[in-house]
Design goal:
single chain, Rossmann fold, alpha+beta
Length: 720
């Protein structure tokens, strides 16, 4: 059938619709092998079947017309038979008509698919087979199913190589041509050199093109200019939500994988950009991104070859979780005992600070503004630590945050002033080295050392106090602080204390490295457990998580809401447990509600762990504070003698046990002269090993000495 030159649009439409199907055999395109691939003309079966059925239906009238003819008897017998079978003939004609309709649509799809494959892949298929039967579909979808083939197979010449980028273009074209309601899967079967296309109905939970929201359209526009520009996007809709702009609760993005998308940094940047584009959901819940890449992604995507980005709303977190004592703690041993819970994440996942010996992230960093909830997190840490027989040393430069823990069982010391804080830091630093010396001398595994925690709240405030003291006009104070070097020792503690059984937690307002001093960057990197209770700027997110695009969204309107690192170091939403102030002072206790009092009472430990001090400095410090401590068991005689007096109290004739600056050499001498200044004590000593030598001590430093006249240093007998 040649194209019509008619000006009638209806005539042209009819000829263009059925001309290439019922018309003459069309000349096909030439493939790469030089052969011409042509579509056969569709011969309708319904026309002859319908003609025969009409003869059967009108057989009585036709018999009257042919009764007088020469062949009337024979024709009459044939018409009579047709009339007797007219019901069956009509049924066959109807079946033939329906079959022709399917053949018509199949031929249309076959022609369109052949042209689509040729234009997108530049490869001409040798044959295209299309199946249109509805299959396992509800009757309501039988007619709509003719819009897309149920299955189509396009075969190619031997040796055909399919370009992945062109296949992606074909996939996009096929999915677009199917229209709403159908999910088309396009895959390349390389061993059999064919393209297989299958059809599945789109779930009712997926949005149609006509129901796309402005957020959906923004997402499509943005992804078109991103590494996912060849993606197909479908919105997951919850129609039970009454608010129209809140019904889209997720998006499914199928795309062709690439090496760039496999980079976690690229994924993080895309996630950050998509969060900004999607904006805040009316429900207040945050967006969660799941990348499905690799061999297992094909089972979840529609064509078996795409990768998928699943964008979903996170489950809602509870707004308040009361701190309850852990159940079955007595039965927990080893690694499980030292999982310190502090909050609940999405899906009821417990957020923990792992302080066990197996943990490679034993230190915690808590970030938040003043009043943001840092103290609540640290208080939860302390309560849980003591319940697990872990002693606690703490510094509170603000004097009002951790003071309630001072008399809590298992809290060895809480200090507040600059001098006390510097002395405690020096004592912890010395304790760390003394424990390592102990392990070296006794050859006992360090995993047998008792674990303790060192907590410093408001590190920014303490760092400011140190820097102001160093720049102050008080030369004695400035020199003393510089000699103590608390920030430098804090950096050493963060790097080395894990091996000595120490665990550290810091509360800061911003995760800036400079507050740790010159070694700040390396010190901060030792904090694997990170908790943020504030909305971060891109710079803050980079300092906190190592990526400026993640972990920035925190709903600060809900007390205790935070982002915390999981076992992989990635941030996830956590609701911090509520731990009331445990101070039993009447002015605080009487202000607590009955519920909070019950929480504190339930959390109070029944036994009090005692700090085991390995170093002379730590024992001296705790002695001055009047705090209890224990000494380690003697192993092969390796234990240092407790300090007995401050250096300023030394007098002539005392026996002094001095340790040289190398920290190893020990020399005992008799005090022959003492000179005391405003900050130091200078002592002249005499011994057999060294005829005359001098030692220098801080004014308040405690020393190992046997006073003259003591049992260990009796006074010489009077010759008279």
């Amino acid at each position: 059938m040649s194209p019509s030159q008619s000006s009638d649009p209806i005539v042209r439409f009819v000829e263009e619709t059925i001309g290439d199907v019922f018309g003459p055999r069309q000349r096909g395109r030439v493939g790469s092998d030089g052969a011409s691939h042509r579509e056969a003309r569709l011969v309708p079966l319904s026309i002859p079947a319908g003609a025969v059925a009409l003869v059967g239906v009108f057989s009585a009238q036709l018999i009257e017309l042919v009764r007088e003819g020469p062949a009337g008897a024979a024709v009459q017998r044939w018409l009579t038979t047709a009339g007797d079978w007219r019901v069956l003939l009509v049924f066959i004609a109807v079946l033939a008509g329906g079959f022709d309709v399917l053949r018509f649509f199949a031929s249309r799809h076959r022609t369109a698919l052949r042209n689509r494959i040729l234009k997108t892949t530049q490869c001409a298929p040798t044959s295209v087979r299309v199946t249109l039967l509805p299959g396992k579909l509800p009757p309501s979808l039988w007619w709509p199913s003719t819009r897309a083939p149920r299955r189509a197979v396009a075969r190619f010449e031997s040796g055909t190589v399919m370009d992945s980028a062109r296949l992606t273009t074909l996939r996009t074209a096929v999915k677009a041509s199917a229209g709403p309601g159908w999910d088309m899967q396009v895959s390349w079967d390389a061993p059999r050199e064919r393209i297989v296309i299958t059809r599945t109905p789109v779930s009712a939970s997926l949005a149609t093109a006509g129901s796309r929201s402005p957020r959906h359209r923004r997402l499509e526009t943005s992804l078109a200019r991103s590494p996912l520009r060849d993606s197909m996007i479908e919105a997951i809709v919850d129609k039970s939500i009454g608010q129209p702009d809140a019904r889209e609760v997720g998006y499914r993005v199928d795309f062709s994988p690439s090496l760039a998308i496999g980079d976690r940094n690229v994924q993080s940047k895309l996630e950050g950009a998509l969060r900004e584009i999607l904006g805040r959901h009316p429900s207040g819940r945050l967006w969660r991104f799941t990348w499905q890449l690799g061999h297992d992604a094909g089972d979840r995507t529609r064509d078996g070859e795409s990768a998928r980005l699943l964008i979903e709303l996170q489950e809602a977190l509870p707004t308040r979780i009361e701190h309850v004592p852990p159940a079955g703690l007595a039965e927990l041993t080893g690694h499980q005992r030292y999982q310190i819970p502090y909050g609940v994440g999405v899906g009821g996942k417990i957020a923990v600070w792992d302080i066990s010996w197996k943990s490679n992230v034993p230190h915690a960093l808590v970030v938040g503004p003043t009043g943001g909830g840092k103290t609540t997190v640290l208080r939860a840490f302390v309560v849980e630590l003591v319940l697990r027989a872990v002693t606690v040393l703490a510094v509170d430069p603000k004097k009002i945050e951790l003071d309630g823990l001072e008399n809590w069982p298992g809290v060895t010391a809480v200090v507040y002033t600059l001098r006390q804080a510097c002395e405690l830091i020096s004592a912890v630093h010395a304790e760390m080295h003394a424990r390592l010396d102990w392990v070296h001398a006794t050859k006992i595994p360090n995993t047998e050392l008792p674990i303790f925690a060192f907590i410093l709240d408001e590190l920014f405030v303490f760092s400011g106090m140190v820097q102001r003291a160093q720049k102050s006009g008080d030369k004695v104070l400035s020199d003393w602080v510089k000699g103590e070097d608390p920030l430098g020792k804090l950096a050493d503690i963060a790097a080395l204390i894990r091996s000595a059984g120490g665990r550290r937690a810091d509360g800061v307002q911003r995760p800036d490295a400079y507050i740790y001093g010159e070694a700040g960057g390396n010190a901060r990197d030792n904090y694997g457990t990170r908790i943020c209770l504030a909305k971060l700027s891109p710079d803050g997110a980079y300092m906190m998580w190592g990526d400026s695009t993640i972990g920035r969204e925190v709903d600060t309107s809900i007390p205790g809401r935070s982002m915390a690192s999981n076992e992989r170091g990635d941030p996830f939403g956590v609701q911090i447990v509520w731990t009331p102030d445990v101070d039993d002072h009447p002015n605080k206790w009487n202000r607590l509600s009955e519920e909070d009092r019950a929480i504190v009472t339930a959390l109070r430990p029944t036994s009090e762990p005692v700090f085991v001090a390995y170093s002379r400095e730590m024992r001296s410090f705790l002695t001055r504070l009047g705090r209890p401590y224990e000494t380690p068991d003697v192993v092969d005689g390796v234990v240092s003698k407790p300090a007995q007096m401050p250096a300023r109290d030394l007098s002539l004739g005392d026996r002094l046990h001095h340790v040289d600056d190398d920290g190893v050499t020990k020399v005992t001498g008799i005090v022959s002269k003492v000179r005391v200044t405003e900050s130091h004590v200078y002592v002249d000593l005499v011994s057999d090993a060294r005829p005359r030598w001098q030692a220098e001590y801080r004014l308040d430093e405690y020393v190992d000495a046997d006073p003259l006249g003591s049992d260990d240093n009796p006074a010489p007998l009077d010759d008279e």
